[in-house]
Amino acid sequence: MTRRRDPRRPRDFATHPDQWPHGPVIEGAPRYVAETARIARSVVAALETRTMTDLAATADLAHSTLSKLVRGETWPDIQTIIKIEDTIGDEVR
Questions:
Q1: What global pTM score does this model have?
Q2: Residues 26-64: pLDDT tens digits?
Q3: Which domain holds residue 66?
Q4: CA dist., res. 50 & res. 89, Å (int)
Q5: How many CA atoms lie within 13 Å of 30's alpha carbon, on the beta-carbon side?
Q6: Is 12 a domain residue?
C-alpha cells in the first residue's frame, strides 16, 4: 500500500507560523512535527556561532536545504538529519 504524503509544511502545524520553530505546535500534531521543530531550533542555535553557508558546507548539504528547514518549508529526510547531527553534535539534542 502506498502512503499518501502530507502536503502540509512543518510551519503549517505551528500555532503561529511566523514563530516557527520556536513557538508551540497545534494540539494533536504528529510527533514528527515537534521533532522537526527541535532539529530546526538546533540549527538556529548552531547559527549563533557560524554562518549557514559554513554549516551547510560542513554538513555536505545545500544552503537551501538548511534554509528551508529553519523556515519550516520542508521536512528533513533521514540523511539530512544524520548529516546535521554529525555536524553539530550535541547541539541537536
A1: 0.88
A2: 999 999 999 999 999 999 999 999 999 999 999 999 999
A3: 30-92
A4: 14
A5: 10
A6: no
Q: For CA atoms 82, 66, 92, 30, give the dihedral sign.
A: negative
79 within domain boundaries: yes
For residues 14 and 86, what is the distance between their CA atoms, to the nearest angstrom? 27
Q: What is the CATH number of the domain that holds 47?
A: 1.10.260
> Taking the C-alpha atoms of 27, 88, 44 and 9 in order, what is their torsion angle to the nearest 10 degrees?
-40
**CA–CA gap between residue 90 and residue 1 (Å, rounded):** 37
Q: Which of 82, 84, 48, 79 is nearest to 66 (CA)?
A: 84
Q: Residues 20, 11: contact at Cβ < 8 Å?
A: yes
Report which of 81, 56, 72, 57 is spatially closest to residue 16, judged by C-alpha positions: 72
Cell numbers standing for residue 70: 529553519
